[in-house]
Amino acid sequence: MSRTFYIKNTKAPKVMSPNELLALQPKDFVQYSLREDNEDYDAIMAAPISEYGVMLMGRDEHSGRGFEVAYDSKTKQYDVRVFTPSTLSDWDSALLFIKNLGQHLGSQVVDEEEVTYAPEAIDYDYRNDIAFGLQHYQENSGFIFGCYRPLCIDGAVREALLAAEDKVQFFSDWVVEQQNLDAFVATPMFYQDRKSKAIYGAYAITEGVPTVLPYEYPPFIDPTRWDIKEEDIDKWELTMVVINGDENDPEAYEVIASINYRDFLAHLPEDSYEVLDGHYMVATLTREVMKELSNEV
Predict the structure, then answer these.
(1) What is the rounded end-to-end Cα distance, in angstroms, of the chain?
(2) 70, 81 in Cβ contact below 8 A?
């Protein structure tokens, strides 16, 4: 579910680049779709956004889910899509983005129901949109996709949401907090064994670094980022890395073991992690714990 707003491109055929779109906004507006170390980063950010497709944008340290920005070459308009449910800050950021873009283009803003707004006077009832989206969790658990990682609304989190007097505010605060933790978000890697053709999924954790990892098995695979299904994975592993010396020296990092992920979860000491939601935890492993885990499994 989502809500999309359309801004006519009065300067067609010129299409703005992601850099140009972000330059219209306050300095803390960012994009979440590309890593800066991507070899094509500079070229993509300087090219018309229509050449990239859909880009996730938002406001650094304020966004929970972000919002999508795209360009429709057929209708010659910019599309800004806000997820349902999004956070209050996501909506504030998206509407500010739309306002600045609309004013720059001298264009009105039209929503999915063909309601037209002046860019500086969009009075869409987004609190109601969030509340509508949250009704799903009255009877169901599930995943939502944030600007950095998925979140699982289940268990204690879902119970707290349902018990909250202001569910919209609770949801907004929780999502933004979870997306902006002072922890490294581990990204799964996938590879195929040349001989057996088995497909492996792998996470990595470095000693002393708080790291967001799945604590349920099998790990959830974000379909918005990966074109692979859970049932395609034959085995999940965890690679444990220690630092011998200066953490800024790439040569100081050493892999001490790769272990079965299911075994890792079974033997992980309770004081080495904190549960975040219905699927994820933040784990911090010492070198000693890593050695114990590698010996136990």
Answers:
(1) 43
(2) yes
Residues in the chain with pLDDT values less than 70: 297
What's the pTM value of the predicted model, to 2 decimals? 0.92
| pLDDT score at 25 | 98
Confidence at residue 1, expressed as pLDDT on a 0 to 100 scale: 79
pLDDT score recorded for residue 297: 62
Are β-strands 184-185 and 211-214 bridged in parallel, bridged antiparallel, or unpaired?
parallel
Q: What is the pLDDT of residue 181?
A: 96
Tokens of 235: 């085995």
Q: Residue 24: what pLDDT?
A: 98
Please enumerate in sequence order all residues whose Cβ is within 8 A of that of 203, keeping only pairs 6 or more positions apart, or say none: 186, 187, 188, 189, 213, 214, 219, 236, 237, 238, 239, 261
* 8 A C-beta contact, residue 219 and residue 149: no
What is the spatial distance between Cα 82 and Cα 91, in angstroms, rounded to a whole number? 7
Residue whose token pair is 């040569």: 251
Phi, psi of 283 (to 5 degrees): -110, 140
Q: How far apart are CA 6 and CA 165, in angstroms?
A: 34
Instruction: Compute CA distances 147 → 1, 30, 132, 294, whole Å.
Output: 16, 11, 21, 33
How far apart (Å, rounded) are the C-alpha atoms in residues 166 and 161? 9
Question: What is residue 86's predicted lDDT score, i.e. its pLDDT?
Answer: 98
Secondary structure (H, E, C), 78-112: EEEEEECCCCHHHHHHHHHHHHHHHHHHCCCEEEC
